[in-house]
Design goal:
Elements lengths: L2 H20 L1 E6 L7 H16 L4 E6 L7 H10 L4 E5 L22 H9 L1 H8 L6 E16 L14 E4 L3 H9 L3 E4 L5 H6 L5 E4 L1 H6 L8 E17 H5 L3 H35 L3 E3 L4 H7 L1 H11 L1 H8 L3
Parallel strand pairs: 1-2, 5-6, 8-9
Antiparallel strand pairs: 3-8, 4-7, 4-8
Helix pairs in contact: 2-10, 6-12, 12-13
The structure holds (2R,3R)-2,3,4-trihydroxybutanoic acid.
């Protein structure tokens, strides 16, 4: 081989190695559409990571459960076959049981209360509980307050829920609570819900306005009741080893990027909550937007007594009374 060719070859190889080291691409996934409160969360995160690391890290977003359901994505992040995911807390208790407490119905008064708890010491301590399970939890975000939809009847009082067959998340707290309403619960992954509603496998489902709108459930559901029965947190999860490998400055960049994602996510949930009822009525849904919340709270009395035993009343009260 000519000396000049050897030099050229070495130079090319060195250049290749340098640029490979200079740029790492990571995957992040959501189960909803790009045009949603979750899409804006991960798109913002991706843009901010790239900006804050000078382009050395790129994050490639995947929408609509393209990489698997929320549960499968959390598994992939735990195993490290996928670096990142943005998920509701629905399937999280299977991995971090302590997170269950956040999904108790009527725990939070409003979004401001929920956000304050998650951003405050209780939420930050909870983020730390993901460490020993193979995750770095970067930031809380949200789905928002969940409401009931179905194809059978208007839900005005808790008794109207009795006997309705509803899809639920794969979350033990939700399943226990909805059984308390007399609902026939059918847990399934989100990607299957539209078809299940369309084919009548289930009568209804429950999700925040942001999810109902982005998933176009108005096409397959007639009735919506603003039950606001449970606040649904979301979370940015990263594989722990992938995070630990980052330099101190890059770790900071990822954490800040997730915070920006959370800001964009919450702003979109607020916008969706403001426009949702009018939007869904215009699309033909019949909406019950004034119902007596106290009756729904009372219907869950026995279930709540169970939760107080299971989680400790003091722990629940600490969240309920957080100012
Ligand atoms: O995270 O499964 C659900 O109903 C979730 O709310 C949805 O996937 C968005």
């Amino acid at each position: 081989m000519h000396f000049s060719k050897l030099v050229l070859g070495l130079a090319l190889a060195a250049g290749f190695i340098a640029s490979a080291a200079a740029q790492t691409t990571m995957k992040i996934s959501i189960s909803t559409a790009q045009n949603s409160h979750q899409g804006i969360a991960i798109d913002t995160f991706a843009k901010e990571v790239e900006k804050r690391t000078g382009g050395r890290y790129k994050v490639q977003p995947f929408y609509n459960a393209a990489l698997g359901s929320e549960r499968e994505s959390i598994e992939s992040v735990q195993l490290g076959t996928q670096e990142l995911t943005f998920t509701s807390t629905g399937p999280v208790p299977n991995f971090v049981p302590d997170a269950k407490i956040l999904d108790i119905p009527f725990l939070f008064r409003d979004k401001a209360h929920a956000r304050a708890v998650l951003d405050g010491p209780i939420g930050q301590e909870m983020l730390g509980k993901f460490d020993s399970k193979g995750f770095k939890a970067l930031s809380w975000a949200e789905n928002g307050f969940r409401h009931m939809t179905n194809s059978k009847r208007a839900v005005n009082v808790p008794e109207d829920l009795k006997g309705l067959k509803m899809r639920t998340m794969e979350n033990p707290v939700h399943v226990a609570a909805y059984k308390g309403f007399g609902i026939v619960t059918t847990p399934m992954a989100f990607a299957e819900v539209f078809t299940a509603l369309q084919q009548g496998t289930v009568d209804g489902q429950e999700n925040p306005l942001s999810v109902i709108m982005s998933a176009k459930f108005d096409q397959v559901q007639k009735h919506l009741s603003l039950t606001g029965h449970v606040y649904s947190p979301c979370i940015f999860l990263m594989n722990k080893d992938a995070f630990d490998k980052l330099s101190a400055a890059d770790k900071q960049a990822f954490l800040e990027a997730a915070k920006e994602g959370t800001k964009a996510n919450r702003a979109r949930v607020d916008a969706d909550d403001a426009s949702g009822v009018a939007d869904l009525r215009a699309k033909g849904m019949s909406v019950v937007d004034t119902l007596d919340k106290a009756k729904f709270v009372a219907a869950l009395g026995p279930v709540n007594a169970e939760f107080e035993k299971q989680f400790g009343k003091a722990n629940i009260d600490k969240i309920r009374n957080y100012k």
